[in-house]
Write a structure and sequence with these properties.
The chain is built from eleven helices and eight strands. By secondary structure, the protein is an alpha/beta fold.
Length: about 325
């Protein structure tokens, strides 16, 4: 846990319904209470960071508590902004008579699968690169596992795609300059734009791969499917050289829970806890109990956060 506290940028993910947003918010609150200026960013389209803090957050950085700020990425809004930036990049490079048709094609592309992911990643990239100097901690509450992995692998995938685009553009420019400009280099704003985007993705990838700067944690509960999904996610991220160091084991039945129903659940749970200890020997395990009430306000979140500290200090999994 000390390792996770030492990181500046932290991604917290996991299967839907395991308590990712609550854990990310509690961890962010802990950092803020330590006096660190903290930004909590939600990439999950089903935002509930604002619900936890009982205020509207939206697509702008908003202060939600002392030293704590929040930002909910709006996929629809970011996709529109992203596509407008593409149109702006093409301004001056396309004949006026063709502009309407090009804009129509771009608007159509905005509705295709993957466009919102590209837009969200562009926003995450900007936050990582531009907000580091303004905050001591940036904590991302990421979408369910599959989306998270796709998001984190995009720098590598898009880097390869842009390399191909740059190479093709370079060849076109060389042919053009030889034919029409006596071999002299020609200015190409699109080539320059591609180079800038390639550098942006390279910079973000460098940050993600810097284990001194960036940390990854997953939240799971002691049930079969979340355990299997977490195992697959850790293996997949490792292929991209991203190491998950911490697991938040949430909603563990407390010893005080009584009754035959809960006793049966506890017997099953013990088997899964043993499986977790076997499968995740390389990760720090932080146990959070199942609470009697919802974590639906800052006071409850504070109690949740205190368990993160207690569990990490006593290693009580």
């Amino acid at each position: 846990m000390r390792d996770l506290f030492s990181k500046k940028i932290i991604f917290i993910g996991g299967k839907g319904g395991v308590g990712k947003s609550t854990t990310a918010a509690a961890f962010a609150l802990l950092c803020a209470k330590k006096g660190e200026r903290t930004l909590l960013v939600s990439t999950d389209p089903a935002h509930n960071v604002g619900d936890i803090f009982h205020m509207k957050v939206g697509g702008k950085i908003k202060k939600v508590s002392t030293n704590l700020f929040a930002y909910e990425i709006d996929p629809e809004k970011e996709t529109k902004k992203y596509m407008n930036s593409v149109k702006e990049n093409l301004r001056g490079m396309i004949k006026t008579s063709l502009m309407d048709e090009v804009h129509r094609q771009i608007d159509t592309a905005a509705a295709t699968p993957g466009a919102d992911e590209a837009a969200i990643f562009d926003t995450i990239s900007s936050i990582i690169l531009e907000e580091q100097d303004h905050f001591d901690k940036i904590i991302f509450d990421t979408a369910p596992t599959g989306h998270t992995i796709r998001l984190l692998s995009l720098p590598e995938l898009m880097g390869v795609w842009i390399d191909g685009m740059i190479e093709r553009r370079k060849k076109i420019n060389t042919n053009y300059s030889q034919l029409l400009n006596d071999g002299e280099p020609v200015e190409d704003p699109l080539y320059e734009t591609l180079q800038k985007r390639r550098q942006k993705f390279a910079n973000v990838r460098e940050v993600l791969l810097n284990s001194q700067l960036t940390g990854f944690a997953f939240v799971l509960i002691p049930e079969r499917l979340p355990i299997l999904e977490t195992e697959k996610a850790i293996e997949l991220l490792a292929k991209y050289h991203l190491q998950v160091e911490t697991l938040f084991l949430n909603k563990v039945l407390p010893a005080t829970a009584d009754g035959s129903f809960l006793e049966k659940r506890r017997t099953i749970e013990k088997q899964y806890l043993a499986l977790i200890r076997t499968k995740f020997k390389d990760q720090n395990l932080i146990k959070i109990p199942l609470f009697e009430e919802d974590i639906a306000n800052v006071n409850a979140l504070d109690v949740f956060a205190s368990w993160i500290v207690e569990s990490s200090e006593k290693n009580i999994v």
